[in-house]
Design goal:
This protein has an eight-stranded parallel beta barrel, surrounded by eight helices. A two-stranded antiparallel sheet has the order 6-7. It has about 350 residues and is an alpha/beta fold. The chain is built from eleven helices and twelve strands. Helix 3 (about 95-110) packs across helix 5 (about 135-150). The chain starts with 8 loop residues before the first strand and ends with a helix. The chain has one domain (about 10-350): TIM Barrel. The model is unreliable at about 1-5 (pLDDT under 50). Helices cover about 45% and strands about 15% of the residues. InterPro entries: Bact_Lucif_Oxidored (IPR050766), Luciferase-like_dom (IPR011251), Luciferase-like_sf (IPR036661). Keywords: Monooxygenase, Oxidoreductase. This is LLM class flavin-dependent oxidoreductase. One of its GO terms (molecular function) is monooxygenase activity.
C-alpha cells in the first residue's frame, strides 16, 4: 500500500456534467467527457494532489452512473492519489453489492479507495431501482448502518426492512485497508450533520455559496454529537467541498469563469425545477468576493479562502469542483496544475507548521 500523506488534504472532484456550451450550445459526447476525467485524474495524481472524487447521477446530462466501474479505470490510470465517490447515492444501492465493489476497488488501487455517502439532490435512482421516495431517510439510515457492519465483519447475520436478511453471510472480498473509509455527505441540514456525528463517519460539507461562517453550527453539531456518543475526536474528520476556478490573476479567473459558472447554475436550476436562473456579472462579482464560498481567483486568493475556512472549521480536507458548465479541458487542466503547485504547498505548510 502506498504511503499516504499526513496532515491537510487537498483534491478535486467532478460530477461529470454534460452541460451545453454557453456560446455554441454544443454537447461533448459522454465518451469524450469520461476520457477527459481520466486525464484530469492523471494530472491531479502526477501533480501531487491528495484525492480525486467522482459523482453519481442517473440521467443523460451526466456522464457517470456506474461510479465503481469508472473508478476502476481511474485506479489503473493513477498511482498514489486517493479515490472516492462524490457521492454514492446510498439510499438506492444495495450495501452488500456496494461493499463488494469498493473492496474490489481497494484491491485494484492498492488501498486508495474511500466512499462519500449521500442521499442525492436528484431522485431518478429511486424509480430506476424500484425504491419509494417516501422511504428517503429510512433507506439511507438502514443502508449506511448495514455498510458499517459489513466493513467491520467478514461474516454477518443481519435483518432489516428493505432488503433480504443475511444469515452467516461471508462478505468478500476484504479490502487492503482495515476498513473502507466512509464519509457522510451533508448539505445545509443540521439533522444531517447530527446523523453523521451519531454514525461516527467523516463528514463532507458542501458549501456552494454564501458566507462559509453560516455553516459552522453544522460542524460544531457534528463533532459534539460524535464525541457525546463515544466516537474518537480524531476520527470525526471534516471535509469541505465547493466550486472553484484558478488562474494566474483574479481578473483572468473571473473573466474566464463567469460565463461557464453562470451557464452551470442556470442549467442545474432548470434540472432541479427551480426555474430559469440568470446570474448577472454584478451578482457573480459578489459571489466571488473574499468572504464567500466560491473559490475563484488567483492562487493567493484561493490560499486565503482555504485558510479562512480552516480557521472556522479546523477541517482535514478541501476538495474543489473545477470542471462545470462546459469549461474547456485545457482550462480545467491549468486550474488543477495551479491548485497542486501553487496553492497546496502553501496550505500544507501553513496548517502543519
Amino acid at each position: 500500500m502506498p504511503e499516504q500523506q499526513a496532515g491537510f488534504e487537498i483534491g478535486v472532484y467532478t460530477l461529470g456534467d454534460i452541460t451545453p456550451h454557453p456560446v455554441t450550445g454544443r454537447l461533448i459526447p459522454a465518451q469524450q467527457r469520461l476520457q477527459e476525467i481520466i486525464e484530469a485524474s492523471k494530472l491531479a495524481d502526477e501533480a501531487g494532489l491528495d484525492i480525486f472524487g467522482i459523482g453519481e447521477h442517473h440521467r443523460l446530462d451526466y456522464a457517470v452512473s456506474a461510479t465503481a466501474v469508472f473508478l476502476a479505470s481511474v485506479a489503473q490510470a493513477t498511482k498514489r492519489i486517493k479515490l472516492t465517490s462524490a457521492t454514492t447515492v446510498l439510499s438506492t444501492v444495495d450495501p452488500v453489492r456496494l461493499f463488494e465493489e469498493y473492496a474490489t476497488l481497494d484491491l485494484l488501487s492498492n488501498g486508495r479507495v474511500e466512499i462519500i455517502a449521500g442521499r442525492g439532490a436528484f431522485l431518478e435512482s429511486f424509480d430506476l431501482y424500484g425504491y419509494s421516495i417516501s422511504d428517503y431517510d429510512e433507506l439511507f439510515n438502514e443502508n449506511i448502518e448495514l455498510f458499517q457492519l459489513l466493513n467491520q465483519n467478514e461474516r454477518i447475520s443481519w435483518q432489516g426492512q428493505f432488503r433480504p436478511p443475511l444469515h452467516e453471510a461471508e462478505i468478500a472480498p476484504r479490502p487492503i485497508q482495515k476498513q473502507i473509509p466512509i464519509w457522510t455527505g451533508v448539505g445545509g441540514r443540521l439533522e444531517s450533520a447530527e446523523r453523521a456525528g451519531r454514525l461516527g463517519t467523516g463528514m463532507v460539507l458542501a458549501i456552494l455559496g454564501g458566507d462559509p461562517a453560516s455553516f459552522k453550527p453544522l460542524v460544531d453539531t457534528y463533532r459534539a454529537t460524535g464525541i457525546s456518543l463515544g466516537h474518537s475526536a480524531s476520527n470525526l474528520k471534516v471535509g469541505i467541498t465547493g466550486h472553484g476556478y484558478i488562474a494566474t490573476t483574479k481578473e483572468q479567473a473571473k473573466e474566464e469563469y463567469y460565463t461557464y459558472y453562470s451557464n452551470y447554475r442556470k442549467y442545474v436550476s432548470g434540472q432541479l425545477g427551480h426555474g430559469d436562473v440568470h446570474i448577472s456579472r454584478a451578482e457573480f462579482e459578489q459571489m466571488a468576493g473574499p468572504d464567500t464560498a466560491l473559490f475563484v481567483g488567483s492562487p493567493q486568493q484561493i490560499i486565503e479562502k482555504i485558510l479562512r475556512q480552516y480557521e472556522l472549521f479546523g477541517h482535514q480536507r478541501c476538495m474543489l469542483q473545477l470542471d462545470i458548465g462546459g469549461l474547456p479541458f485545457d482550462k480545467v487542466a491549468k486550474s488543477i496544475e495551479l491548485l497542486a503547485t501553487e496553492v497546496a504547498p502553501v496550505i500544507r505548510r501553513e496548517i502543519c507548521k
